[in-house]
Design a protein that fits this description.
The complex is a heterodimer.
Chain A (H helix, E strand, L loop, with lengths): L2 H32 L1 H4 L3 E2 L2 E2 H31 L6
Chain B lengths: L2 H22 L5 H6 L6 H12 L2 H14 L4 H25 L4 H8 L3 H33 L4 H51 L4 H4 L12 H11 L12 H17 L1 H4 L8 H37 L9 H8 L3 E3 L19 E3 L3 H9 L4 H39 L5 H24 L5 H14 L1 H10 L5 H22 L28 H17 L6 H10 L5 H5 L2
Antiparallel strand pairs in B: 1-2
Helix pairs in contact in B: 1-8, 1-16, 3-8, 3-13, 3-16, 4-13, 4-15, 4-16, 5-11, 5-13, 6-7, 6-19, 7-8, 7-16, 7-17, 7-18, 8-13, 8-16, 8-17, 10-13, 11-18, 11-21, 13-15, 15-16, 16-17, 18-20, 18-21, 19-20, 19-21, 20-21
The chains are: A mainly alpha, B mainly alpha.
């Protein structure tokens, strides 16, 4: 594959990483730790929202992040024709 | 039938199952022994990874810890799951494409240096031994409590079982046994949790029951009630916690990065056929882990509520049977300080009369909730599955480090496949015996050392691997000095603030808390040591020659998925 193409592929991959790791950081460190007290003023059912993110929500979002990455990369691999057979 | 009978039956069936699988999947080549032939489906690998990852600590101790820590318990919940995001996005696909057998393999090849390889081998062995000692201890505790054999006997039985399938089957045997062990442990964890959630809140799903109203007709939310119970007794509100924000951040980060840097977790992603599968497999692994990890905080809250209701301001003479039974193991202690025969369970150390060990929250939970005997036996089998599956994964890392990274790659490169396989089996056998010894004679510092294991993985492996993939210019000088500085820095902080070595021993540790750097505990210091590693590596690499052309090509090559099969056959 041409070098130029490879660079584009890698750049797109890095963009996905910035985006998804941004979400990763926001739900865990943002919602679950730094802004927990502010979010705790909101209640959903019996859960204070900051507490819920720290003990439940962030874990659900982590799973979604990984499968989103799987989906995006499978598409990207096809697009740049670097997928495995 | 009584609990003991049920335990013999259920534990016996599960052990027979593990041994059966081991015989059916014995390994014939080093490739099968090290990476299960590279042919494990991503779903099966996800399940095996989950069992490998969830140790006796996750199964037995975590919910109890959270129960006493409240909100602060989130450091474990997020720390031990968030690392999988890093694995799936930053490590697994590239290491799978690289296609060798071990983490030191990658470090040694990428940094074209046997020094780097040796540093990696030493880290891998220290981290894995630390961990495995804790697992064998867990096996001993479960055996002694539920089957009433001595802890020593329990450890020996555990050793024989692990020895059997790890030595015979290598990674292949371990993988398929772990799939079975995952099923056992998750059923054992969920059944009591569902029963208790139903009883306390009427909700079948513990994850939701935890945020529901109590079943007693009061219409009060469980967590509100628990906040109030806690504050009434002088503890911090359950949903608030007591750690500083910066420390919660540092611990969570160190655990996440440490998880992503643990060799026994990383090596699991060498076993799937394709790069695509490595990504997906990390997702499945986290999904299977999350079933337990989202249930644990619910169990923690239920158990805390039940405990306070049962013991607080109640007469000692009216305590239920489980209370007396666990008193014998010294995991519950009652001391009637004011002599009124009533249990005062409060925050104030002078007035508090009850101490409860973290570990009994999960193990005693079915008894506290009056569940049938077979459920109690199931929990014992689950605890054993969690401990054995993790122990086996760790033993494999140790044996591979010795037979592959030391003997094959450094001491005797001409060794035959058969010879290497023999060494791998011998090393696995030797490692089981050492682990068993530590299980029977646990060094007093096991818990502290496990925290150190995460710190070390965070401070050494994680930066070296990340820069190896994402920073082509990183050279051996940079990577090696980064790993060494990170590791020594972590060791120094741990020895000073966790063991008090420079200030007159363990007793000085509490007094040193004021002096923590930036208010960060030794458990969270891996975050700082990791940064130090990155910075040192970057600076040193700027002043030393770029890596050879061939190495830069390796980096380019691992960044694209195509050709993973070819890279694998070497």
């Amino acid at each position: 594959m041409a070098d130029k193409n490879l660079q584009n592929y890698w750049k797109k991959n890095l963009n996905y990483l910035y985006m998804l790791l941004g979400v990763w950081f926001l739900v865990s460190y943002g919602a679950g730790i730094f802004f927990k007290d502010a979010l705790n003023n909101i209640k959903i059912g019996g859960f204070k929202l900051g507490f819920w993110f720290a003990q439940q929500g962030s874990i659900y979002v982590f799973i979604i992040i990984i499968f989103a990455y799987v989906y995006l990369m499978n598409k990207l691999d096809q697009e740049f024709d670097v997928h495995e057979d | 039938m009584d609990v003991k009978m049920w335990t013999y039956i259920i534990v016996g069936i599960t052990f027979a199952l593990y041994i059966g699988i081991a015989i059916w999947t014995r390994a014939g080549s080093t490739k099968e022994f090290y990476v299960a032939g590279g042919g494990v489906s991503s779903l099966a690998n996800g399940m095996a990874t989950a069992a490998d990852w969830m140790s006796a600590a996750s199964f037995i101790s975590m919910a109890g810890l959270i129960s006493f820590m409240g909100y602060d318990g989130a450091v474990y919940l997020m720390g031990w799951t968030g690392g999988y995001v890093l694995l799936a996005l930053l490590l697994a696909p590239y290491l799978r494409k690289f296609g060798k057998f071990t983490v030191p393999d990658f470090i040694g090849d990428r940094y074209y240096s046997n020094t780097a390889r040796t540093v990696a081998v030493v880290c891998a062995i220290i981290v894995s031994f630390t961990y495995v000692a804790g697992q064998m201890r867990g096996v001993g505790v479960v055996f002694s409590r539920f089957l009433e054999v001595s802890i020593e006997m329990g450890v020996v039985i555990g050793m024989i079982i692990v020895l059997f399938y790890a030595v015979l089957g290598g990674m292949k045997g371990i993988t398929y046994t772990q799939v079975a062990q995952y099923c056992v442990l998750i059923i054992a964890y969920m059944v009591p949790a569902i029963f208790i959630s139903m009883a306390l809140t009427g909700n079948v799903f513990p994850q939701l029951g935890f945020g529901s109203t109590l079943n007693d007709g009061s219409g009060v939310y469980l967590l509100d009630k628990l906040d109030q119970l806690n504050t009434d007794l002088g503890f911090a509100a359950y949903t608030d916690g007591t750690k500083s924000v910066v420390d919660v951040f540092a611990i969570t980060f160190a655990l996440m990065v440490g998880t992503a840097g643990l060799p026994h977790v990383i090596v699991r992603f060498f076993t799937v056929p394709k790069v695509k599968d490595a990504r997906k497999s990390a997702g499945y692994a986290l999904m299977f882990i999350a079933i337990l990890y989202t249930t644990a905080p619910a169990i923690a809250a239920f158990a805390r509520t039940n405990l306070i209701h049962t013991v607080s301001n109640k007469a000692y003479s009216e305590m239920p049977e489980w209370f007396k039974k666990w008193e014998q193991t010294k995991l519950i202690k009652f001391e009637d300080k004011n002599g009124d025969g009533i249990i005062q369970y409060v925050k104030d150390k002078e007035a508090n009369e009850l101490t409860v060990d973290n570990d009994i929250m999960v193990l005693a939970n079915p008894e506290i909730a009056n569940l049938p005997n077979w459920v109690i036996a199931l929990v014992a089998a689950g605890g054993l599955a969690a401990a054995l599956s993790t122990a086996a994964g760790l033993l494999l890392v140790i044996s591979t480090s010795i037979s592959h990274d030391l003997i094959k790659k450094q001491l005797n490169p001409n060794i035959s496949e058969k010879g290497e396989l023999l060494y791998a089996r011998l090393a696995a056998g030797g490692a089981v015996v050492v682990a068993g010894y530590f299980g029977i004679n646990p060094p007093g510092f096991v818990a502290a050392v496990v925290a150190l294991a995460f710190g070390l993985a965070a401070a050494s492996f994680f930066p070296a691997i990340i820069m190896g993939i994402f920073y082509k210019r990183m050279n051996k000088e940079g990577a090696v000095s980064g790993m060494i500085v990170g590791m020594l820095f972590m060791l120094y902080y741990m020895l000073k603030y966790k063991f008090g070595i420079f200030d007159g021993g363990k007793d000085a540790v509490d007094g040193l808390k004021e002096a923590w750097w930036f208010g960060i505990s030794p458990e969270g210091f891996g975050t700082v040591a990791m940064l130090a590693n990155f910075i040192v590596a970057m600076v040193v690499s700027k002043f030393t020659p770029a890596p050879p052309e061939a190495v830069q090509h390796i980096v380019e090559d691992i960044r694209i998925p195509r050709g993973a099969g070819a890279a694998h056959a070497h």
